[in-house]
Amino acid sequence: MPNRRASGVLLHVTSLPGGRLGDAAYRFVDWLVAARQSWWQVLPLNPPDAHGSPYSSPSAFAAWPGLLADPDAAVTRREIDRFRSDNADWADAWEDYAGAGALAGQVRFEREWSALRHYAAARGVRIIGDLPLFVAPDSADHLQHPELFRTGVVAGVPPDKLNADGQRWGNPVYDWSAMRHNGYAWWVARLRRVSALYDLVRIDHFRGFVAGWEIPVTATRPTAGHWHRGPGHALFDALRAQLGPLPVIAEDLGRITPAVVRLRNDLGFPGMVVLLWAFARGPHNPYALAHHPVNSVVYTGTHDTPTMAEWWATLATDAERADVGRETALRGISDPEPHWRLVRLALASRARIAILPMQDLLGLGAEARMNRPGTESGNWRWQLDPDALGPEVSERLRMVTETAGRVPAII
To answer: In terms of Cα–Cα distance, which of 361, 314, 264 is closest to 35?
Structure first.
């Protein structure tokens, strides 16, 4: 976690014009530079499931060749052999699962992604990735290491802010005892992989390392579940012993207990605060601007929440709108558009990093929402209009970023 204030934009690769790497990705980096942004946050780069979700992937390690700008680029046997050697923890299992040519696709991805990261880093833009906590059922990981998963239960969450009924995800549940006995080797390999892909990584559902919600495999309702203890410090002690400092953001949303807060603080990981929830009344609202820790990352919203324009137009209460007005007045913010007032509130936060979903910068509504938790269809489809990122938006973002004191170290 850097010690200076900075900001960035959340835009998944599939949401670029055309939904792939290549020219659109490089143009977006140039746009971030013009807007004086330090970070580009993406969602998981793993192959998505049948519904388009990258959070339920057939591999926790492999990248998705569907993101390639040049999926037919030549690959040599020497390159494949080197990739196999460098990724011995998972490469053979992925090739067995995905078939002939699977590793050639990974070589192509590494080639394109490495070039893009080098281009971005040379211009002062670093990349935040996303690591789902769980693996998908019958994925390459599940089939390669059945001994690392428990039977009879699946993962989910109880009712929370994102879904009033809770969610039954159906993912396999880790056998933390079995993982401890082999030194958490699978997790060491996984963190080594994401550290090679990103500069900083958000670990989704961090609270699962303290306790996870387990649902009997025969039950259909999430409320039939119960909490099961996670590995806590032991996992991260093993990771640090093997990998050194961990470039991690803890996604600590949902039902967060004092034990989750203690683990996050003990590890020194920044947590997340979401502006969308900042205006709910109550003296102990952790998302209220007055409660934002410096060592945190503030988001206007996430890929799972409504866009700010949708929230303002149809979901915000009169009291919440009034509170937005008071907060903006305190800071001298008077932009005519509600979404820009909310963007500037996020940038004004004490949180060291501010991340702004592209939909919120453009003032887009429900049609641009990325995901609705608990639903399978209609998600993960939004793409940026090629003409949307004109100089007007970058110039405006540059000015408010400078006003908030979040200018990048390299210009």
So the answer is: 361
Q: Residue 50 and residue 379: Cα distance in Å, rounded?
A: 11
CB 389 within 8 A of CB 31: yes
pLDDT of residue 46: 97
- Tell me the pLDDT tens digit for each residue of 264-283: 999 999 999 999 999 887 77
Q: What CA–CA distances, in Å, run from 408 to 3, 11, 32?
A: 12, 19, 11
Q: Are 334 and 321 in contact (CB under 8 A)?
A: no
Closest CA to 5 of 378, 368, 295, 366: 295
| Per-position DSSP letters for 174-240, written without gaps between them | E-HHHHHHTTTHHHHHHHHHHHHH-SEEEETTGGGGTEEEEEETT--SGGG-EEEE--THHHHHHHH
Domain range summary for the chain, segments of one domain joined by +: 145-268
3 state DSSP class of 251: coil
- pLDDT, mean over the chain: 92
The mean pLDDT of 61-75, rounded to a whole number, is: 97
- The sheet with strand 167-174 has its strands ordered as 167-174, 149-157, 211-216, 226-229
Helix (H) or strand (E) holding 173, with range, is strand 167-174
> Which residue reads 């639903």 in tokens?
375
* Active-site amino acid positions: 204, 251, 304
Q: How many CB atoms lie within 10 A of CB 182?
A: 13
| The pLDDT of residue 411 is above 50 | no
Instruction: Give the angle 189-187-355 at the CA atoms, nearest 5°.
Output: 95
Contacts of 291 (CB under 8 A, 6+ apart): 273, 285
Contact predicate 363/310, CB 8 Å:
no
